[in-house]
Specification:
With 154 residues, the protein is α/β, with parallel strands linked by helices. 30% of the residues lie in helices and 25% in strands. It has a single domain, classed as 3-Layer(aba) Sandwich (Glutaredoxin), CATH 3.40.30.10. The radius of gyration is 14 Å and the shape is globular. The termini are far apart.
Length: 154
């Protein structure tokens, strides 16, 4: 069942590169969230997207938006990737059970063992405001996603 705008965003807690763990519902009433599901650390398109996000978030997010990058990679892979890319926002490890959170959001691709390149804009109320899906080799408009999330925070 695909999630759509207006649906409640399924809650989850995952290991994070920032702090110990991140729980989606902790942002409710505080910030809009961009759930940035991506296939794999160190892949070409993911590397470009995450770097753009790290560069844009401090100025475009302006404290109203949190970005949570989510892939099936391990926390150790995420930590190395974050260090290489200069990523200060949380990367979450949907590693064990593999893809369980991506599955809740309908974006796990079991035949490939990765998440689809999909972003969910979650408003402060915990409801999905927008879903942006791209083909795996096609990068997303990171600035546009952050702007949508800022609008959802207003």
């Amino acid at each position: 069942m695909a999630l759509k705008p207006g649906d409640n965003a399924p809650d989850f807690t995952l290991p994070s590169t920032v702090g110990d763990k991140v729980t989606l519902s902790d942002y409710r009433g505080k910030k809009s969230v961009v759930l940035l599901f991506y296939p794999l650390d160190f892949s070409p398109v993911c590397s470009v997207e995450t770097k753009q996000c790290a560069e844009m978030l401090p100025t475009k997010g302006a404290g109203d938006v949190e970005v949570l990058g989510i892939s099936v990679d391990s926390l150790w892979s995420h930590k190395a990737f974050a260090a290489q890319q200069g990523i200060s926002y949380p990367l979450l490890a949907d590693f064990h059970p593999k893809g369980a959170v991506a599955e809740k959001y309908g974006v796990y691709l079991p035949e490939k063992g990765i998440s689809a390149r999909t972003a969910f804009i979650v408003g402060k109320d915990g409801r999905i405001r927008d879903v942006v899906a791209n083909d795996i080799p096609v990068g997303r408009d990171i600035g546009g996603l952050i702007e949508k999330a800022r609008a959802a925070a207003a």
